[in-house]
Amino acid sequence: MTVSAAPRSGRFPTLAKYDVLDELGHGGMATVYRARDRRLGRDVAVKVIHPHLRDSREIAHRFAVEAKAVAKLRHPNIVEVFDVSSEDEPEQYLVVELLRGLTLRKLLQVNGAIPPEVAAVIGVELLGAVAHAHSAGVVHRDIKPENVMIEHRAVPNMGPDAGVSGVGRASPADQPGDRALVKLTDFGIAKLLDGNGMTSTGQVLGSPAHMAPEQIEGAEVDGRADIFGIGVLLYECMVGHLPFEGNNPAQVLRRVLEGSYPSAERERPSVGKTWSALLDRALAHKPEDRYPDAATMREALQVELRRLGVVSPRSELESWCDDPEGFGAQHTKRMIPVLCDLAGAARKRGDALSSAADYNRALAYAPDDPALLRIVTSLHRSENSRRLAKRIAPIVAGAIALGALAFFVTRALRAHPATDPTPKPPVSVATGPTASAPLLVASAGAGGATGVDAGQVKPPPTTLVISPTTTARSMNPPKVATRDVVLTRINPPRALVSVDEAPPVDVEAGRTFTFDVSPHSLVFSCPKDLEGNSLCEPRTVRVPPGPVAPDPLIIRLNIKDAFLQVEGDPNKHYVIKEDSKHVIVGEDTPVKMVESASRIVHVTELETDRNQTVQLRAGKHATASFLGP
Description:
By secondary structure, this protein is an alpha+beta fold. It folds into five domains: 1-99, Phosphorylase Kinase, domain 1 (2-Layer Sandwich), CATH 3.30.200.20; 101-322, Transferase(Phosphotransferase), domain 1; 327-384, no CATH class; 483-555, no CATH class; 562-625, no CATH class.
């Protein structure tokens, strides 16, 4: 239902009440056309089921379910259904409002990751739509960027090709935020909670990377499956890739079922801990650990937006649509002082965790700011000291308890000397500097026996020496000099570290290493892919001996190049849009991987302006094919 380029079909379907004008696109179940409603004189989108599916009772049933599900919903963020075909018509179709814009999937392909606050605004709009659908007993069950449309009307002084969609122009009646609208589409596999038997138990419908675990397992599905789907969508918007990835659908499904994914903050530090924690709750493996309903998650997003000073969320989305690149640069400049102010306020009220979270996000936007580096390093050291104090508190308490026990034992021995009839050796008294504090000596024979056989030598008594003046001091171990080494930044965010040849463990920015005064070695590396190959070149950092703490560490690992090959016409020219890099047909072209081991690029055939979207992975080969029409 998008106004996007699509090959014109040689034959359009004939409909009783609509003039079909052109084809907009097609999917696995139906083709979407732009048509003219003869009665009302308006353009609409007509979704016509494929001819080879027309006779399938299951597909026809799902098509009817979509009509029934969406027709009962009236919400500004849900595509509106106008009409549906009757049973006696030769074509089976659904008529909905014509949306002029781009899918969220297309926007992600063109622009990459979206600023977290803009992504959150999209989430607020979608959650409003989902809450309305849930209240009507409808669960979408297939929320993904392909099913989200962004309508955008350019401002009057911008051309028709401006902005991310460039379809339509603003009208004088538009208010701030009115020019960008989010629409949720395609309820084709929605489950009607009040429609018994619509979907049989155990039937898996949906997109693997966006499906909730209970949906994959064929268990009962409710509105919390849509919350999971929105969590996946927002993660991809904020981070730039899906949380659950794999080389094939089976691997993706397994990772969803395992609940295995890297945190958003770890993958892209500029997302920050607060947004990352919000996504973690939405992506919880168990439904009961997620937000209980769409309204609750929507409020959580709105609270964080207000905290960050976003008072007009839709205007935020509108500004990004007008100029994504320019908005991104301004957004970074704006967020740094906002985050620093929030962090400073949290620090003053003693909320160290919130303060560290906001300072860390600000540092992700300004990694070379020396003042921020000093603050973050100081916070990490303070946090380290707090954790150390927490760890040694039981030890200190134990030492105090032992000291108290020794004191009372000493008093008890003084007050109640042992009454053993066996002659005692004389009590020795220490001389010299400690003469004022006599050593108390208690003797005890084996089993308390006092007699010995003739001719045997009596063993000396076992002695317990308690010195009140030295006991407490001897219980405290000598202090060992240590120094802290703070890892303030690491790229890529998902990395490993091996300390002194120990097995590698996960590491992230903000980690503090505590070492003694001897030399140490840290080897930083990337995780391995499924074939066991490291994704980047390791880097070794030496910590010299001595009591002085080294400067904070900033680690940048060299991710291995990806390789791209173009299949096409040798007489034409091909270029990678993001890098302005030319690619020669039939040759493996190395492509730099800067921020992560995976990235999406767009390859253009300059003569025809045709494009191919390709996902590149470090150390791997990928192909962009321009063969065929």
